[in-house]
Every structure is written in structure tokens, then in C-alpha cells.
Amino acid sequence: MYRFRQLWKFSTLQFHKGASEYQNVSENVVLRGVTIKGRYNDLPNLLFFTEACDPVENWIPFFSDPNNKILDYRNVHILSPRNFGTSDKHYSFDVQDLANDVVRYMYYNKITMATLSGHGFGAKVALAAGCYHPERTTGVFCIDYSPMDQRYHEAFTEFRGYIAKLSQINTKELTKSQIETYLKDNIDCPKWRSIFSDNLIKLPSGQWDWKFALKFLNDNVSFNKADSIAFWPVKAGLYTGRAHFAFPEFSRWVHLGTNTLPMLKVCPQVRGFGHDVHSVQGDNNTLNHWVYEFDSQSFVFASRFTKFLSMYDGVHLLLKDRTEVGKEFVPSIIYSKKDPNHIYSDYSPAHYYHNWRFNNVYKNLDTQNK
Questions:
Q1: Which of 218, 217, 200 has its CA nearest to residue 209?
Q2: pLDDT by residue (tens digit) across 116-160?
Q3: Distance between CA 271 and CA 369 in Å, rounded?
Q4: DSSP code per residue over 150-177
Q5: 352 pLDDT tier (thresholds 50, 70, 90)
Q6: Cβ(199)–Cβ(186) under 8 Å?
Q7: Helix (H) or strand (E) holding 265
Q8: List of residues 6+ apart from 121 with CB closer than 8 A
């Protein structure tokens, strides 16, 4: 298993400033987490969103591992979705609000386009942002997630039960040792128990509270509403860009036999199993959802991640992969097949500089050409 390393070893790591606040207006929500600078200058950006309640610190070793080589291709922003971690809190879990949080973060941090990715609920956030804002998205990579109704999956019903258990105690009236004893007695899953323990925060008053918005989360998972974190609403529409889905072979969240079909339905450019949909072989471990916990599994996921970033992400859809950029040409739209005077031409699909909105690269190029 991965052991969390000392943060001072990551010289390119920077936690975002600011404390989590409750917002009355959804548009005021600010996402926070940690940014890991890539190994080269002027790299595109990858925005990665964590699972519900999962601290961003748990993913730092995965992205920072030099064997995974993800930092060779992207600057990585590991972010907590709204209502989790140090991100701001608001009652709404509406899918469009989740998507707008992402674009607002990109604007504040001067990111024109980015690769969007996530794990579990975080993958839902990434895919939703791709659906609502495809012009800001170069590609979507989802880990152990399928855009469907997961409210009746065994894994989610267990999570819902754990949240209900947490709602039965007032942490402000208990000591940390009493809270952890309660977790040990009531949370059967050791991983969720560890995550909840990591989410304890000591207030200035000396009392203890949760880093995530427990009341908002409990309300959301307790009722089968359209904005449930485990439900993919039809109103989100389609994501027509490049997408990739990877999940453990015996996933409790993505059942191999049926749950891969919604991936093709929501993402029409996905070519199917073995191309853009992959199951990672492994044993039938109930903790396999936490891919970063197992060295062999995390390496395979990172390899799929790296291949997507290096070969497919941001590449024009009319091209097979990055090897065809600037080499292969596609036919232009013909006016009429019956017109003998029509010239059948072809063209090379255009690819834009990843941060053109906040950079003068094209303006300077025009000046030089004059």
C-alpha cells in the first residue's frame, strides 16, 4: 500500500490558500486543493476531483510518483468538489452548479482549457463540466465511475448508512478519542473509517467538526433526488469530446456486464471496451475502489492515464491519435457529388495553444508576420 510521504519532499507542491466557507450564493463557491507543477515549463493543466470525503492528500503520491510520469505531461490540480475538503460549501449538488464550479476555478487561475478527471463522485464533476463546457475541456478521464443511477448500488447504500451514522453524533460535544471510538464501533469499512478520521478538524474554540458539510451531504444521500451525488441526470446532456473510463475488474461501483453502456450513451465518441473503456485486472477486494492504495493497481491506472494524456487528449476527433497531427489530412465537406467542377480538397485539423485566452502567443505571432 501507498504510505503518505512527507509533503516537504514535493518541492513543486502548493496547497491553495483560503479556508472553507459556507456560501449563500452558489456562484460564490470556490474550489481548493493542491497544485503539483509538472516537470517541464508551459505544460497544459489537469484538473482532478476526488471522491466524496476523500482528502486531496491521498492522491499526491499517485500523481507525484516518478514512475507514473503524469507530471511529464501535465500540471496537476487535485481539487475537492464543493462541500468537501477546503472547498466552499453550499446546499446545492445540482450537476450544473458542480460544472460551473470547475469553469470558475479555471477562470480565476487563468486556465483556458484543461483535461478534466476524477475518481467516483469527482469523476461525475469532471464529466459534468465536460458536458456543460466542452469548449474548455480537452478530454475527460474517469476512474471507477459510470454516468448512471448508482443510488441502489451496494457500495453507495453502505456509504449512505455511514453518513447517517455520522449524523447521529454531535462532534462538538465529544473529544477526538471519543469520536474515533464511535467510528470504530459504527463504521465497518476500514477505509471509510480512515477517511472520516482524516476529515476531523479542530475549531478555534477547541471543539471538533467535520471538514465536509455533513448536513448537506446527509440530506443529499438520504433522499432519491435528481441531484443525488450517485445519480447522473439526463439534463446534463452529452460530452462529445475524447473520454476514457478505467475501473477495477471487480468494481463495486461499475459492474462490467452492464454499467459500461452508459459510458457510450453519454460520451458518443467513446469507441468501446478495449479502446476507451478498460477494466484493470485484480482480485475481488472490496477496497479496490481506492486504486491508489495498491501499488500494482495504481501503476496500471497511471499507465492508462499517461497514454490518454500523451496520445489522445486534446487531439482533433477526426484524427486517430497524436501521431497523425500535422501528418494526416481529412476531406473537406463537399458541396455536391454531382458537381463535376467541384474540387475535392482536404485539410489538416487545427489545434490551439492550450492557454490562448490568457496568453499573447497568437497576437505576437500576428505581429511577426506583418
A1: 200
A2: 999 999 999 999 999 999 999 999 999 999 999 999 999 999 999
A3: 41
A4: -TTSHHHHHHHHHHHHHTTS-GGGS-HH
A5: confident
A6: no
A7: helix 261-266
A8: 49, 51, 52, 81, 145, 229, 230
Side-chain half-sphere exposure of 320, counting CA atoms within 13 A: 5
pLDDT in tens, 233-262: 999 999 999 999 999 999 999 987 778 899
**Grid coordinates in use for 214?**
455533513
Confidence at 343, pLDDT banded by 50, 70, 90:
low
Distance between CA atoms of residues 100 and 123, nearest Å: 15
Collapsing DSSP to helix, strand or coil, 357 comes out as helix
Report strand pairing: 45-49 vs 200-202: unpaired
Which ranges in 56-173 belong to alpha helices (H)?
60-64, 95-108, 121-132, 154-166
- Cα separation of 189 and 156, whole Å? 12
Residue with cell 491521498: 58
Which own/partner contact pairs does 203-211 have at CB distance under 8 Å and 24+ positions apart? Answer: 203/172, 207/171, 207/172, 207/173, 208/171, 208/172, 208/174, 208/175, 208/176, 208/179, 209/171, 209/172, 210/166, 210/171, 211/20, 211/55, 211/84, 211/85, 211/86
- The string of DSSP codes covering 232-253 is --GGG----S-EEEEEETT-SS
According to DSSP, residue 311 is labeled I
Alpha-carbon distance 329 to 209, whole Å?
Answer: 58
CA dist 146 and 132 (Å) reads: 17
Exposure string over 243-280, b if 16+ CB within 10 A, otherwise e = bbbbbbebbbbbeeeebbebbbebbeebeeeeebbbbb
User: Ramachandran region of residue 18, left (φ > 0), alpha (ψ -120 to 50) or beta?
Assistant: left
Residue 123 and residue 49 in contact, taking contact as beta carbons nearer than 8 Å: yes
